[in-house]
């Protein structure tokens, strides 16, 4: 079974001591009964659960963060960002397309505490829709209506001094979630328990579309930052394939990096492949230099004003003082 499951234990930074050993069927905090595993991230696992409290009896998405100083710091920042957004007094129409934390609580693990975040359950990421529709990539006719909503959501975040990413779609019919939950209860996903820590197979797909589509929402603020701080942002904020040029060059970035990010995501959704993979053909690994070369091949060299703000250690390897590409870079 372990050879068939590629889950959090395949992450090179996986540490079973920091992960909460959640199991399907377990009731967390005497309230949330776990039905299935939806996925995992660098610092957490994500589950579909049923709120068994008398006043609720509803489904939720439960994000269980790993214990550890840095892991908890990221989770606390996500909660703080979500609370900030929820307190905003705004009539901006894009607010409806933002997914926020509904509740938080802590549970005790063997080495320490785990912060748990409760969200409204949503269907799948947009990139999975091509599979449901039997196409390679998401058809333009389907993607176009979502694009307007995503831009409204980003405009709301930017106008309220935020930076964020991640795109999920809501359920088109409440029966989809009910059917999925019953199926998971009848036939729970397999798991591997070789090291004493259960690794369940993720089941993030909710089946074929029944009718119409649900609303798209921007989710996951664990990497979000405020845009109204005096210090310029210069750290890596995006997954490598979606990095904006100013992020790649460490030339300080602002909200425009989000628009680049959205553009590269749209390309991936439409074409079913990334626009810039940054892969070094010799080593087969990601290379920032190769990524920059791919951008330049498509769009031409970066403007001198951008290079003047960039990290000189990166620039000296790639460009001359006049912004011309070095011979080594061209040859590579």
From TrEMBL:
The keyword Kinase applies. GO terms for cellular component: cytoplasm; nucleus. It catalyses: L-threonyl-[protein] + ATP = O-phospho-L-threonyl-[protein] + ADP + H(+); L-seryl-[protein] + ATP = O-phospho-L-seryl-[protein] + ADP + H(+). One of its GO terms (biological process) is spliceosomal complex assembly. Gene3D superfamilies: Phosphorylase Kinase, domain 1, Transferase(Phosphotransferase) domain 1. Residues 32-332 form the Protein kinase domain. It holds the Pfam family Pkinase. Keywords: ATP-binding, Kinase, Nucleotide-binding, Serine/threonine-protein kinase, Transferase. This is non-specific serine/threonine protein kinase. Its EC number is 2.7.11.1. It is an enzyme of class 2 (transferase). It comes from the Eukaryota. One of its GO terms (molecular function) is protein serine/threonine kinase activity. The keyword Nucleotide-binding applies.
């Amino acid at each position: 079974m372990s050879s068939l499951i590629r889950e959090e234990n395949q992450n090179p930074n996986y540490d079973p001591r920091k992960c909460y050993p959640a199991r399907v069927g377990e009731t967390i905090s005497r309230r949330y009964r776990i039905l299935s595993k939806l996925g995992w991230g660098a610092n957490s696992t994500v589950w579909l659960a049923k709120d068994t409290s008398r006043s609720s009896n509803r489904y939720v998405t439960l994000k269980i963060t790993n214990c550890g100083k840095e892991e908890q710091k990221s989770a606390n920042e996500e909660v703080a960002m979500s609370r900030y957004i929820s307190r905003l007094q705004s009539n901006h129409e894009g607010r409806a397309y933002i997914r926020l934390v509904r509740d938080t609580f802590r549970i005790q693990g063997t080495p320490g505490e785990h912060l748990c975040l409760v969200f409204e359950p949503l269907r799948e990421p947009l990139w999975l829709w091509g599979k449901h529709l039997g196409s390679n990539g998401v058809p333009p006719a389907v993607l176009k209506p979502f694009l307007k909503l995503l831009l409204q959501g980003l405009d709301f975040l930017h106008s309220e001094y935020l930076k964020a990413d991640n795109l999920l779609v809501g359920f088109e019919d409440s029966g989809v979630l009910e059917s999925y939950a019953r199926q998971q209860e009848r036939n729970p996903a397999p798991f591997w328990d070789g090291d004493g820590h259960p690794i369940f197979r993720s089941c993030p797909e909710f089946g074929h579309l029944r009718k119409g589509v649900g609303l798209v929402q921007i989710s996951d603020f664990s990497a979000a930052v405020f845009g109204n701080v005096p210090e310029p942002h210069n750290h890596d904020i995006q997954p490598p394939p979606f990095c904006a040029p100013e992020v790649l060059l460490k030339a300080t970035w602002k909200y425009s990096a989000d628009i680049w990010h959205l553009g590269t995501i749209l390309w991936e959704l439409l074409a079913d492949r990334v626009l810039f993979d940054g892969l070094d053909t010799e080593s087969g690994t990601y290379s920032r230099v190769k990524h920059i070369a791919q951008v330049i091949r498509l769009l031409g060299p970066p403007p001198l004003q951008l290079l003047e703000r960039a990290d000189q250690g990166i620039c000296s390897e790639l460009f001359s003082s006049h912004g011309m590409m070095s011979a080594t870079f061209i040859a590579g």
